[in-house]
Amino acid sequence: MKIENIRLLPLRGATPDGGWDEKLLRDDTNLHTLIEVVTDEGVTGVGSVFTSETLVRGAIEVLHPFLIGVSAIDPTVTSERLHQQSFWQGRGGAITHAISGIDIALWDILGKVTGQPISRLLGGRYRETIKPYASLLMSDSGQMERDLEAGLMRGFRAFKIGWGPFGRVSSATDQRIIQSARQVVGDDVELMVDAGGSDAFWPHGYKWALNTSKMLEDYAITWFEEPLRPDDLNGYRLLTENSPIPIAGCEVLTRRQAFVPWIEQRAIDYVQPDVTKVGGISEEFRIAELADDRSILFVPHGWNTAVGLAADLQLVAAARNARWVEYLTPSRYIDDLLLEPIIMSDQGELQIPDGPGLGMRWNPDGIAKYTGGMTLTSSAISF
Ligand SMILES: [Mg+2]
Questions:
Q1: Tens of pLDDT along 338-376?
Q2: Structure confidence by residue, pLDDT tens digits, 63-122
Q3: What's the CA gap between 335 and 300, in Å, rounded?
Q4: How many angstroms separate the alpha carbon of residue 65 from the centre of ligand 1?
């Protein structure tokens, strides 16, 4: 079975609020692109890329000679060839992002062809359910508290709050936000804090991060994410050694090789690759296994789409060192793209799909809504 065509379905109209520059946040902003791989036998798979269509299209043009006519059922091999063959262009950037989406789609195809969920093809499933944590933006206006209350009503038992004014106004503001969040969720719900140190011109270094980690310990924070600039390897190494609470990071790194020093030097307690950027499922699973062998937990970064979430769920099923999955909520690029809504158990856990491939059904109306009327190609094997 060979790759015959690559289709791009750019998403517009519901980009979630995040750390983007205001100039990027127009109604027609496109920061996420779905990718569809079509095979010569009519089987199709879908992936997701955390990158605009313009860049993905350019990357696909570069990769085109190495993509069309190659095996569609050897995802790790095909993706590795793409990495190697494009070594001199866009390495670690848009090329790697685009390969991420292709890799996810190829795993989806292999799952459909074999009738197995991707997690089983990766070696097997350690778990059938996983605890999602709801990612919410911080605010000092009451909105965060309302969002937390709404999340509790929806059954979430873990929340990550981040960005907004945290680390950007004063230490007193930071503490007030954390105190308020802890009051709303109570003592039995997990609370994580994301400083968002990959924001442009992040002003803080090691001392701020260490002092803040001590404040966060008083509120039983499960982990402190991105308290430093994303490339500050030595700062993270020092902080992880001295912080009283676990340190998480690495969401902006790409390529498995970039993670090696972070894991080998224990610069983080929890590693957070993003499957729609890092190189896809093949790359992320190897990072998760490398981390597991060093007793580092694997927490997929999931600020993307329902397709990205589906890939994360397969990864956390197959990775022994997974405890949570990120679930941005509510998010139209997740909720509206799914044919069946995600159901949470009374214990606040998500069922991990065990159908073929990514194991989720896509909502054609939702896809059409955010792509200007585009549709996925019907697959010769579906479920
Ligand atoms: Mg983050």
A1: 999 888 999 999 999 999 999 999 999 999 999 999 999
A2: 999 999 999 999 999 999 999 999 999 999 999 999 999 999 999 999 999 999 999 999
A3: 19
A4: 35
Between the CA of 226 and the centroid of ligand 1 the distance, in Å, is 6
Q: Identify the three-state secondary structure at position 232.
A: coil
Question: Does residue 19 carry a pLDDT above 70?
Answer: no
- CATH of residue 87's domain is 3.30.390.10
Asked if residue 144 and residue 56 are part of one domain, the reply reads no
Chain segment 108-158, per-residue pLDDT in tens: 999 999 999 999 999 999 999 999 999 999 998 899 999 999 999 999 999
The alpha carbon of 225 and the centre of ligand 1 are apart by a number of angstroms equal to: 6
Q: Identify whether the C-beta of residue 237 lies closer than 8 Å to the C-beta of residue 261.
A: no
pLDDT of 119 reads: 98
Total domains in the chain come to 2
Range of the domain at 58: 3-119+362-371
> Separation of 166 CA from ligand 1 center, angstroms?
13
Query: What CATH number is attached to the domain comprising 272?
Result: 3.20.20.120
Shared domain check, 277 and 169: yes
Q: Would residue 357 count as lying in a domain? A: no
Residues 159 and 283 in one domain: yes
- 5 Cα to the center of ligand 1, angstroms: 34
Where residue 372 falls (left for φ over 0; alpha for ψ -120 to 50; beta otherwise) is left
Q: Does some domain include residue 356? A: no
Q: Quickly list DSSP for 337-354.
A: TBSS---B-TTS-EEPP-
Q: How far is the CA of 19 from the centre of ligand 1 (A)?
A: 10
Over residues 239-289, the pLDDT tens digits come to: 999 999 999 999 999 999 999 999 999 999 999 999 999 999 999 999 999
Distance 251 CA to ligand 1 centre (A): 6
Distance 163 CA to ligand 1 centre (A): 8
Note whether residue 28 is domain-resident.
Answer: yes
Q: What's the CA-to-centroid distance between 291 and ligand 1, angstroms? A: 18
Half-sphere exposure of 86 (CA within 13 A, CB side): 29
Residue 4 alpha carbon to ligand 1 centre in Å: 36
Residue 369 Cα, ligand 1 centroid: separation in angstroms?
A: 28
- Per the CB < 8 A criterion, the answer to whether 225 and 194 are in contact is yes
